[in-house]
Amino acid sequence: MSGELTASLSDLATRLVDMAKKAGAADADALAVCDTGESVRVRHGRIESVEREDAQGIGLRAFVRQRDGLACASASTSDVSASGLEALVRQVIEMARISSPDPDAVPPAGAEHPTETELKQWAGRHAP
Fold this sequence. Notes:
Largest sheet: 3 strands, antiparallel
Structural class: alpha+beta
Distance between the termini: 8 Å
Number of strands: 3
Mean pLDDT: 85
Helix content: 25-40%
Strand content: 35-45%
Radius of gyration: 19 Å
Order of helices and strands: HEEEHH
């Protein structure tokens, strides 16, 4: 994964969390994923097909304050367009609002994020 793609996914996740908070979430976290897969099918010693798949997606978990505590919901999408992110936020906030409070659901706190150097090192080890 290139550093530019990592930064782009990080920006999307940050933007999604901000959008959720503006829409009424007490707290939120997001997960962005990018995956590339390749396959070669061989039949009788000859290459039959070569396929490559690139996929990306983003998930959101949002916590909404209710009278009896925090309720949460989560969902994901592969539509990372502006309208896709807006739809995801709306869906997750609405689901959390109709959910029962869950005393075991804990908002994100104290996550340790890799530095830019660590991300570059990781990307270098996992380059195709």
